[in-house]
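Severity: low
Component: inverse-folding endpoint
Summary: output formatting inconsistent between runs
Steps to reproduce: submit the following structure tokens with default settings.
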């Protein structure tokens, strides 16, 4: 036979309430334990034995210290160096400006005036009589003959620099040289892609023969001539 319990005395109904009350009590005890403070006891120290007698009056000793002044810097005597006067002074001769009536007056016509010739430079286009390349003396068109002989001279003396071939350097060198009034080759100007090609162009032009100088109004003059030299690898 199964025993019957009184529903009013059943403790399981209030188990949740009892659990909450117990949990609150435990939390309160933990909080109180954490917040509990213990103060150190206050010790009273009697300083009566350390009291100083007011009748004793002692003055603090005063010490006077004398500062030693710094030593004075030594003053060295000034040495006088005697230098011999070896500098030669150019004496300027002062010429009097007074008129000397005994001086002979020279006639200006007695002086010989030497006129220095003015150097005339003419370019190839405006020259009246072009320079004559050796071999073109009997040519009817001396300009055309000059150009042909120049091309022949360049082909004959042309040599491609080995360094330029190794470095694959090529291009055109613009040159300009002066044919002096005595037919010789003067200053050679050059401008190209590399110094090696420029030197070769100067070498070729420096081998030009002496020519018959160009003339302007019947007078030999300097004539400038420009020609490009092309260096091209095959």
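Observed output (run 2 of 3):
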């Amino acid at each position: 036979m199964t025993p019957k319990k009184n529903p009013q005395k059943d403790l399981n109904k209030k188990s949740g309430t009892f659990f909450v009350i117990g949990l609150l009590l435990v939390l309160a005890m933990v909080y109180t334990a954490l917040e509990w403070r213990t103060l150190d006891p206050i010790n009273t120290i009697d300083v009566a034995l350390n009291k100083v007698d007011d009748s004793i009056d002692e003055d603090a000793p005063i010490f006077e210290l004398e500062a030693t002044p710094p030593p004075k810097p030594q003053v060295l005597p000034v040495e006088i160096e005697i230098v011999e006067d070896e500098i030669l002074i150019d004496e300027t001769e002062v010429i009097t400006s007074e008129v000397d009536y005994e001086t002979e007056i020279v006639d200006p016509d007695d002086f010989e005036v030497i006129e220095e010739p003015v150097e005339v430079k003419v370019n190839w286009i405006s020259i009246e009589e072009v320079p004559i390349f050796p071999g073109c003396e009997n040519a009817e068109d001396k300009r055309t003959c000059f150009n042909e002989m120049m091309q022949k001279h360049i082909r004959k003396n042309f040599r491609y620099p080995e360094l330029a071939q190794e470095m694959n350097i090529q291009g055109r060198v613009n040159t300009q040289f002066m044919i002096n009034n005595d037919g010789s080759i003067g200053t050679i100007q050059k401008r190209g892609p590399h110094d090696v090609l420029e030197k070769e162009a100067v070498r070729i032009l420096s081998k030009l023969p002496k020519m018959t100088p160009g003339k302007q109004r019947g007078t030999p003059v300097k004539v400038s001539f420009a020609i490009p030299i092309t260096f091209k690898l095959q």
